[in-house]
Automatic annotation (TrEMBL), chain A:
Disordered as annotated region, ranges: 27-51
SUPFAM superfamilies for this protein: Periplasmic binding protein-like II
Keyword set, alphabetical order: Signal
Descriptive protein name: Putative aldouronate transport system substrate-binding protein
TrEMBL record, chain B:
Family the UniProt entry places it in: Belongs to the binding-protein-dependent transport system permease family.
Transport as UniProt keyword: yes
Gene Ontology annotations of biological process type: transmembrane transport
Organism of origin: Kineothrix alysoides
Protein name: Putative aldouronate transport system permease protein
Predominant cellular place of this UniProt entry's protein: membrane
TM region positions: 30-48, 94-115, 136-156, 196-216, 237-259, 285-310
Domain of life: Bacteria
Keyword annotations from UniProtKB, A to Z: Cell membrane, Membrane, Transmembrane, Transmembrane helix, Transport
Membrane topology listed for this record: Multi-pass membrane protein
Pfam families, sorted: BPD_transp_1
């Protein structure tokens, strides 16, 4: 009995201590949060302490889907030895980016590094990010990422820079082989069967898929084909909704069309092309060409579907499917059956020139890698970002270890054997050996040695050799050497580009932002509805009626204001 | 213990209130100590967080905290009730909540009684074990199974087509009308076995003499269920019903969040999802809090009304 009493006392005591401790740290934190500005200047003093051979560990959260690598990952260890630091990366699972970020803010505790996606403005609003202006000046590799004009675009309304965009940084000469963006994709087996025809319009595209499906309803092993599928889970519904801008020959401004002559914002949801596009989908849905599970499938189910090679075509962004799907197809040797996807230069009619691909770097001014107020040693964190941009570490990240993951030819060119390529597409190998720090700043373009591309997929010889012969044959038939050649390339649209970097950062604190959220809600519900509708005309009219109630004008006028601001801003530098 | 006895004991307590003396306190010091801990726990985890309700009346910004945010009165509540989405969300929550309450309540009682009538001890144990196992699965797994089973090429459609009930597969998740029944079904599948346990326990507490007496009086199985089992577990039924009425607005979050999609969002979103979407995702913590307050108030009102009805009919009650 005595013992039990003692035990209960102890338990009670620890409980209350734990509670008090919990409360204590909370108040501490709000104190540090309010004094962010002073913190940035004082940490410089203790920056020198790190160089005692000990490896510093940082944490990072990226509000995008990703794969965690093993703790004893080989290249991560090498980079840690060379730079004195490593980062434990975690990724978004089963939530949207804004939900994840909102939860972090409500909790008040952050990892050292964070990429907030469309939740970035909330992070800045909450005072969770460290202003990086002074640090950027201190680290030459980071400073060299962008021009003064671009850095200026990244300044928030308070004049500080809070994040560093990871992508859209081209070093030296640009080397692009893949079309990293959105397109109508089609499997090479369909093109081959039809004798590699010119496919330039949406009607031709679906006609081709229909006739192929009629002649070949199954794959070689008897699995039924899915002629056309549409991913529309959550924010990934761009696969359904934003094609009208491309079909009219405009680039990917994402949420609106920008008239390049008059510099006016145009709403692509209500254009005649939009109506035609959804009408086509509606017809194809009725014919059974559009996958009936399109509107209810999750992203995972979609990727699983594509990985079986059953899907003949779809609209998607390369980065959204290719890294998973191409590896899976390669491992199952489905590329030999012509299950790889190539993009087609499709517009609404033959006289409209497509702009699916644009050359030049695209600066995303809405989000990037940020350091949070929870990071105890901002200097060390920024030094790490600086270090992994050095050419030798950059090669380690994207090429791997010399003689293991790639070989160097006599002329100094990097090349990989078939086995090394297999490894690079193998999930288990990637988890245990490769570490790209893919959401840290990085380069495309050419290496400092002047010979090699910064990444294997930009290395023309390596890229072409790595292609399956079936794919090479397809490219040859269209006189193309790369994915980009399939579409043709365009100049960068203009200094406003891309407008999505603004609409991504909108939230309900402004009328336009509220309208933008409402528009999203309406489209999520109505676009599938009109595609599935028996009476398309009636459904479209109903949709337009509901759409009108979203106050889209408030959204468009905020976009127009931002467009004007960007043009005025860039005029200062010309 | 029969009802009558219970009532008598209660009356006795009411008649002679226990005198609070130092001696009595000393005698109960261990009990008091433990209750004290529970009280602290309650204050810290249930009452202190309520200070966060202040947020609903402010234009809350995380940077300024609750002490420096601008006070805006009932503006957020006004915004809430002028938002057609929120009204729809209340409808969905109430709809699914009531369906869940009624259906899961009835199935649990029926299941418990049926199980009790089983004569084979081993069979009974087996069925009971299997039936409550799904309770331990998390919703993400249950919804995964549902998503697979009910998809266009899933087992349900395959069976329906094979047996010629339908001509072409139905995509269950593409039709708003199927959503509430699917949610109700999932709840039943997952929780019936678990909910039945408490009724089974109540049934075991019924005096066997009553069954014997009823049998001697010529009562068959039906009659015994109707006149002995059901009245025997009535207090349990009413207490649980009262508690569940307060939970009607907790119609769920995970299941609707995981099973929902754009096509059915008009019927799938509950208050909790609304709070997540507008409060957390959009960073408008004030409107999220306002929606939460609304939910709590309605729950309290519901529980008070239900309790009053029980009181009025002289039944068991919570307070």
């Amino acid at each position: 009995m005595k013992k039990k009493q003692l035990l209960s006392l102890l338990l009670g005591a620890t409980l209350s201590i734990a509670l008090l401790a919990g409360c204590g740290s909370k108040t501490d934190e709000s104190a540090t949060e309010t004094s962010t500005d002073s913190a940035t200047t004082t940490t410089e003093a203790d920056a020198g302490e790190t160089s005692n051979g000990e490896i510093k560990e940082f944490t990072a959260f990226f509000a995008v889907a990703g794969t965690e690598i093993n703790d004893d990952n080989e290249i991560q260890t090498i980079i840690a030895e060379k730079t004195g630091a490593k980062v434990k990366e975690t990724w978004l699972t089963g939530q949207t980016d804004k939900e994840a970020i909102g939860t972090f803010i409500a909790g008040g505790e952050y990892p050292d590094f964070i990429e907030g996606g469309s939740g970035t403005p909330q992070l800045i609003d909450a005072g969770a990010l460290v202003a990086l202006d002074d640090y950027i000046e201190k680290y030459p590799n980071i400073k060299a990422l962008f021009s003064e004009e671009d850095w200026n675009k990244l300044r928030q309304t308070d004049g500080h820079i809070y994040f560093i965009p990871q992508f859209g940084t081209v070093k030296n000469e640009e080397k692009v082989c893949t079309h990293n963006d959105e397109a109508f994709w089609i499997q090479t087996r369909v093109l081959k069967w039809a004798g590699y025809p010119e496919v330039k319009t949406m009607d031709q595209y679906f006609e081709l898929i229909e006739s192929y499906q009629a002649a070949n309803p199954t794959m070689e092993d008897g699995t039924e084909n899915i002629p056309y599928t549409i991913l529309c889970e959550d924010w990934r519904y761009f696969c359904l909704e934003n094609a009208p801008q491309f079909l009219d020959g405009y680039p990917n401004d994402g949420s609106v069309i920008v008239d390049p002559v008059n510099l006016k914002i145009i709403d692509y949801n209500t254009t005649p092309t939009a109506k035609l596009y959804f009408q086509k989908l509606n017809e194809e849905y009725k014919k059974g060409i559009v996958d009936p599970e399109s509107f209810t499938q999750t992203y995972d189910e979609y990727i699983a579907k594509l990985s079986t090679g059953r899907v003949l075509g779809m609209i998607d962004q390369w980065w959204d499917f290719a890294y998973n799907v191409n590896d899976a197809l390669k491992q199952q040797e489905l590329d030999a059956q012509g299950c790889n996807y190539v993009p087609l230069p499709i517009t609404i009619s033959e006289d409209v020139k497509n702009q699916w691909h644009n050359s030049g770097a695209v600066l995303n001014v809405s989000s990037g890698l940020a350091v949070t107020t929870s990071c105890e040693d901002v200097d060390a964190a920024m030094k790490f970002v600086n270090d992994i941009l050095a050419q030798d570490i950059h090669d380690l990240r994207f090429w791997g270890v010399e003689d293991v993951d790639y070989n160097v030819t006599e002329t100094g060119e990097f090349a990989r054997t078939e086995e090394q390529r297999m490894n690079a597409s193998d999930t288990a190998y990637k988890a245990s050996n490769l570490c790209t720090y893919s959401y840290f700043p990085q380069y495309t373009g050419t290496s400092d040695d002047g010979i090699n591309a910064n990444r294997p997929d930009g290395q023309a010889s390596e890229f072409y050799d790595a292609l399956h012969p079936v794919l090479q044959e397809c490219f040859a038939a269209y006189g193309a050497k790369t994915y980009v050649d399939m579409l043709g390339t365009n100049e960068s649209p203009g200094s406003w580009y891309p407008m999505w970097s603004f609409s991504n950062s909108l939230n309900t604190s402004t009328p336009g932002g509220t309208a933008w959220v409402k528009i999203g809600e309406v489209k999520h519900e109505w676009l599938p509805k009109i595609v599935m509708a028996n009476d398309y005309e009636g459904a479209w009219a109903d949709y337009m009626e509901v759409y009108k109630n979203c106050d889209s004008q408030a959204f468009l006028s905020e976009m127009q204001t931002e467009l004007d601001r960007r043009m005025a801003e860039s005029a200062k530098f010309n | 213990m029969s009802l009558l006895m219970k009532k008598k004991v209660k009356e006795k307590i009411n008649e002679v209130p226990i005198q609070i003396t130092w001696k009595e306190i000393k005698r109960q010091k261990v009990l008091l100590f433990w209750s004290f801990i529970i009280v602290i726990y309650g204050v810290i985890f249930y009452y202190l967080p309520l200070t966060g309700w202040v947020m609903a009346f402010q234009n809350y910004k995380p940077k300024d905290g609750i002490f420096h945010s601008q006070f805006i009165g009932f503006a957020k509540f006004e915004q809430l009730f002028h938002d057609a989405t929120f009204l729809r969300v209340i409808r969905n929550t109430l709809g699914m909540g009531v369906i869940n309450l009624v259906v899961s309540f009835i199935t649990a009682i029926v299941f418990a009684i049926l199980l009790n009538e089983l004569r084979n001890k081993n069979g009974k144990k087996l069925v009971q074990t299997i039936s409550y196992l799904p309770h331990f699965l998390s919703w993400i797994i249950v919804t995964g199974i549902l998503h697979e089973a009910l998809s266009g090429s899933g087992i349900v459609n395959e069976l329906l087509v094979k047996f010629n009930f339908i001509d072409a597969p139905i995509n269950f998740f593409a039709h708003p009308k199927f959503f509430w029944p699917i949610v109700a079904f999932a709840n039943i599948w997952k929780e019936t076995g678990w909910n039945a346990i408490i009724y089974l326990a109540a049934i075991t507490a019924i005096d066997p003499c009553l069954y014997e007496a009823a049998a001697i009086d010529g009562a068959g199985r039906w009659a015994r269920i109707k006149y002995v089992t059901l009245p025997g577990i009535k207090p349990t039924i009413i207490i649980l019903l009262l508690m569940n009425v307060g939970n009607v607005l907790n119609a769920g979050f995970e299941i609707q969040y995981l099973l929902g999609n754009g096509l059915v969002q008009s019927v799938s979103q509950t208050i909790d999802i609304y709070v997540l979407k507008w409060g957390i995702s959009q960073g408008d913590y004030a409107i999220g809090t306002a929606a939460g307050i609304f939910k709590s108030l309605v729950s309290i009102i519901l529980i008070v009304i239900a309790n009053m009805i029980a009181k009025h009919n002289d039944e068991e009650r919570l307070f």
